[in-house]
Amino acid sequence: MARQHEVWAEAQRERARQARDREQERRESQRAQARAARAADWAERDRKLMAADERVRKIFYIEGRMAEAAAMANDVRARLAELDGVLKAGLRDGPVLTFASLRRTDRFPAFDMGRLATPLTPPQWEHFAPEEPSERGRLFGGTARARFEQQLDSARAAYAEARERYAAAEDGRRRQFAEQRAAYDAAATAFAAAVAEHNDGVDQFARDCWAQDPEAVAEFCSLVLDLSIYPDGFPYRARAVYRPGQQEVVIERELPAQSVIPPDRDYQYVLARDVIDGIPRPEREVNERYQAVIAQVALRTIHEILISTPGGVIEVVTFCGTVSSADPLSGQPVQRLLLQASAERKAFETYPLAELDPVACLGRLNAVSSPHPHDLGPVEPTVDFDFLPYSQRPAEDAESPESAGGGRNGLSSPTPETAR
Question: Which residues constitute the domain of residue 177?
Answer without folding.
Answer: 114-199
